[in-house]
Amino acid sequence: RTEADGNSGILIHADESTPKIAFNAPEIQIYAVGRRDPGIDHQAGALYALYPAVKSAIRPPMLWNTTRVVCRGNRLKIWHNAALICDTVIGSDEWSRRIADSKFRDSETFGKRSSGHIALQDHGKKVWFRVVRLRSLVKT
């Protein structure tokens, strides 16, 4: 959860190849709309600038949200408050087209990885995370 106009995110498949992680790692947006409406591509649950949020899954500021991210190989599925945000394949034609149509079009590394670090982000407003679970889906 975050306070009104709080901007945060969960970045996936990140690495240290760029000065800012957001330029190589897709971000599941956490944004509680207050006075400023950032648009549906930037609201809570959106895969920032690539897949829009689902309006019915957006909650007001200070309410808890549930986000689930499942990555199996190149397949990526994201749910926000039980609404499916995306079911895609990293590197597919659709994935590449969405990146080409986004602000990340000139990044050589953005959205190219199917593994990497997970980062929790904030932009100066209060944000809370609880019950964070990570599980490997690869048998060792």
Q: How would you summarize the topology of this molecule?
A:
Blueprint: E1 7-14, E2 27-31, E3 67-72, E4 75-80, E5 83-89, H1 93-100, E6 117-122
Account of the 3D structure:
With 140 residues, the protein is mainly beta. The protein is 6% helix and 27% strand. The chain contains one helix and six strands, in the order βββββαβ. The strands form two sheets. The chain has a three-stranded antiparallel beta sheet, with no helix packed on it. A three-stranded antiparallel beta sheet has the order 3-4-5, with no helix packed on it. Strand 3 (67-72) and strand 4 form a beta hairpin. The longest helix is centred in the last third of the chain and has 8 residues, at 93-100. It is globular. It starts with 6 loop residues before the first strand and ends in an 18-residue tail after the last strand. The model has no long low-confidence stretch (mean pLDDT 90).
